């Protein structure tokens, strides 16, 4: 088979303490999955359940636990914001999964940032338009190496501290036990609308106190039990 243009290569995330890599497929994101963040976005978490949107796999920037990662300040925005998230990656797929099957589908976890052009997202929301312009753009999803799941880690991830510091100041802090929908619930719910596949990535939502980062800003994002990534913004 001859291709008329070069095939786009998969983005690869490293597996922590391994020479293996994870090829990124689809990137699903969960909106309003921490009650306090839903409130700060002007939503009622009791009335408006979390929902799903997508980022392109090309948005993913492999980050490191050992060294600083750099991303560029994006075009077309004056309100570039951070959102720290627990990331789940799937080693199995399926359709209409039970919670037990959803748990079994999880290969591992990572620390991620859902970077957002908030002004563009807000404008799109007001006009009832899709969010991609505010969410799915180059370098908008720095993600750490993947820590493979084991029984002890699976327990920790249900109540792990998650947080972000901006220029040394703590801006976001919560626990994964505050997720409106648990990881198993998210996967099971997603599998009702999509046949999930090995290689899918799920960003599970962000706690409250999202905010802007400027050129030169330094973000330290972490999830206890996984590690931390340091991401800085260049012009």
TrEMBL record:
Query: What does the UniProt keyword field contain?
Result: Hydrolase, Metal-binding
Locate the coiled-coil region(s) and give their ranges. Answer: none
Which molecular function GO terms apply here?
acetylpyruvate hydrolase activity; metal ion binding
* Domain Fumarylacetoacetase-like C-terminal per the UniProt entry, residue ranges: 27-233
Question: Does the record bear Ribonucleoprotein in its keywords?
Answer: no
Q: Which InterPro entries match?
A: Fumarylacetoacetase-like_C, Fumarylacetoacetase_C_sf
Give the signal peptide range: none
UniProt protein name: FAA hydrolase family protein
Organism annotation: Marinomonas hwangdonensis
């Amino acid at each position: 088979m001859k291709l008329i243009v070069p095939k786009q290569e998969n983005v690869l995330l490293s597996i922590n303490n391994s020479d293996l890599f994870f090829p990124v497929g689809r990137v699903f994101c969960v909106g309003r999955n921490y009650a306090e963040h839903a409130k700060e976005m002007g939503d009622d978490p009791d009335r408006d359940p979390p929902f799903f949107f997508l980022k392109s796999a090309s948005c993913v920037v492999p980050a490191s636990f050992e060294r600083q990662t750099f991303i560029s300040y994006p075009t077309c925005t004056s309100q570039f914001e951070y959102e720290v998230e627990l990331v789940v990656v799937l080693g199995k797929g399926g359709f209409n999964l039970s919670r037990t099957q959803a748990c079994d589908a999880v290969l591992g976890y990572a620390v991620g940032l859902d970077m957002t052009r908030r002004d563009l997202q807000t404008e799109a929301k007001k006009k009832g338009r899709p969010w991609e312009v505010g969410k799915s753009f180059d370098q908008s999803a720095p993600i750490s190496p993947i820590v493979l799941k084991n029984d002890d880690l699976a327990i920790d991830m249900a109540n792990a501290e998650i947080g972000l510091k901006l220029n040394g100041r703590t801006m976001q802090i919560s626990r994964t036990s505050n997720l409106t929908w648990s990881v198993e619930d998210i996967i099971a719910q997603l599998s009702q609308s999509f046949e999930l596949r090995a290689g899918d990535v799920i960003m599970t939502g962000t706690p409250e106190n999202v905010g802007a980062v400027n050129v030169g800003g330094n973000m330290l994002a972490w999830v206890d039990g996984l590690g931390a990534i340091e991401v800085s913004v260049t012009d």
